[in-house]
Each structure stands twice: as structure tokens, then as C-alpha cells.
Specification:
Elements: H1 12-30, E1 42-47, H2 53-64, E2 68-72, H3 86-96, E3 99-103, H4 107-116, E4 121-123, H5 131-145, E5 152-156, H6 161-173, E6 176-180, H7 189-198, E7 203-206, H8 209-213, E8 218-221, H9 233-239, H10 247-250, E9 258-261, H11 273-276, H12 283-302
Helix pairs in contact: 1-12, 2-12, 3-4, 5-6, 5-12, 6-7
The structure holds phosphoric acid mono(formamide)ester and norvaline.
Phosphoric acid mono(formamide)ester binds near residues 51, 54, 125, 133 and 263.
Amino acid sequence: MKDFLSINDCSVEELEELLKLSGQLKRLYESGSRDLCLSGKTLAMLFEKPSLRTRISFEVAMSDLGGDAIYVKPEDIGGIGKREPIKDIARVLSRYVNGIMARTFEHSTVTELAKFATVPVINALTDWLHPCQAMADVLTIEEHCGKLKGVKIAYVGDGNNVARSLVFACAKLGMKMVIAGPDGYELDAETIEKANQISAKAVVQTNDPAEAVGGANIIYTDTWVSMGQEAEKEKRIADFAGFQVNAGLVKKAPADAKIMHCLPAYRGYEITDEVAESANSIMFDQAENRLHFQRALLKKLMG
Ligand code: CP
Ligand code: NVA
């Protein structure tokens, strides 16, 4: 495993190993101990989009493991692939640092970086995928449900990068996912087919949120307007009417169904403040687990 670009590229064994290591490192750091396996190592972090969780949790994870992180805004280097080709950025950075993490618009930017870098490349969100988020989500689900096999996730909202990575995680790790979104915002058929080839009937797409949440252990949502889609905001808000995770919808799920959101949450749109703040909401455990998963990922790739 050189890079971490997509959950679909990883074997079940690799994913399970990462989850196990995440739990071990979480307990180690909670006990006050440290694992300085990345002492003297540096991670370059390229961001074409804003970030709170990803940036800070990766920086803290590097520091926790004894290493350093350098935050790079695209304008600092004249844009990714603008001042010089992506393949040159990959090869130059590989001479200076021990790992590259990138959050980009085009998914092909991270695959191009990985192709030419001789050091590990981590996908920190592209328009297509958000694998670090999905793995932190899986860790959170395992902690709250006590298992993964047979867990049902109802994903209500946009068939976006977050949904796509979750679908691969579900298929590989024995969970089921029902995605409910409006016409025209479904997850692409190819991803659903790929997931269902990994595990039969792992993923089902519907236009009925009430049907999706029936029997669900987890209700998951994400913004209707992802970074880069700001120009479509008004249309998207109109098209997603009826797909809000609110008290009425939550009542149609089992009483112990947990509420998840990768954050940032736009209260009053994809989720109400009432549901986001309810006792069943585990959004901040999810956010915390970004740190625990990424420590494990960095140790595995760069240690
Ligand atoms: N969930 C997530 O990736 O958050 P940021 O955009 O703040 O990094
Ligand atoms: N789907 C969202 C996730 C943000 C973490 C986006 O891409 O903006």
C-alpha cells in the first residue's frame, strides 16, 4: 500500500488493519503515551479548498507522531498544475518530504501526484472521493454499534464524494447502505454496480427518505452544496426539498438510530439544529475520529 486515494483500492485486510491500528493508537494517546514513529519525517499538505477538520487533524496527527506538517495554499506555489505540471510538483516534493496529502477539485490531480511521487500520497478529499472521512466514519460506527457486519446506513442527500467513499467502505466491510436523494442527484450507477460486485446488495438507491431510514442503525447526511458547487446553490436547495434530516424523518427510524454528518453542517438545510444537537447525534465523535484514523494511516504509510 503506497498511497491512500480510494477505499476501493484497498483490500479488506488493509482496511481492517487500519481500523485496528486506529483503535490501538487512540487508546495509547488517551493513556498519555506517544508513538514517535514519524520522528524526523515531514508531510506536505496541499489544499485547493478550505478545511477545518482535515487540516488540523492531519497537522496534530503528524505532531503526535513526532513529525512535521507543512500547509501549502495553491497560491503559494502558483496553483497546482498551473505554474508547473503536477508531475513535476510530485517529483520535487518527493525530494523534500516523506509524504504528500492533497485536497483538490479534480480527482485526477491526486492520481497524477501519486503516479509521479515516490513518497505516499493521501487523498484528503476530491470532487469524487473523501476516503479519510469514510474510514473515520467506519471507526465511529464500530464504536457505537459494536460491529460493522450487517449495520444499515441510511444516507439521505447528495450522491457526492462523501457518499461515494462510504459506499466503498460499506461494500468492503459488510455494511448495507440505502441512499435517498432527489432525481438527478443519485450516486453514479457505475459506483453502485462496483460496490454491489464487491458485496451483493450492499447499496440501494431510492428517492424515498422514509423508506431509507426504516430499520436503519445510522442516518447520515452531508451538505447539499459541496465545495465548488456554490453557483448551483439556489437550484440545489430547491431540488433537495423533502430530503432534510429532521425530527419527522428521524421518527421513522428505530429510536436508537445514530445521526452522522461529516461536517460542516448547514443547519436548516440538510439537517435541522434539533437533530444535529440531539442525544443520538454522534457528529463530534466522528470528527474526533478523523485524528485517530489519520494517525494510523500516517504510521502505516510513512512509518
Ligand atoms: N469533514 C471534513 O473533511 O471537514 P473539513 O472540510 O473541515 O476538512
Ligand atoms: N461534500 C462536501 C464534504 C465536505 C467535507 C464537500 O465536498 O464540500
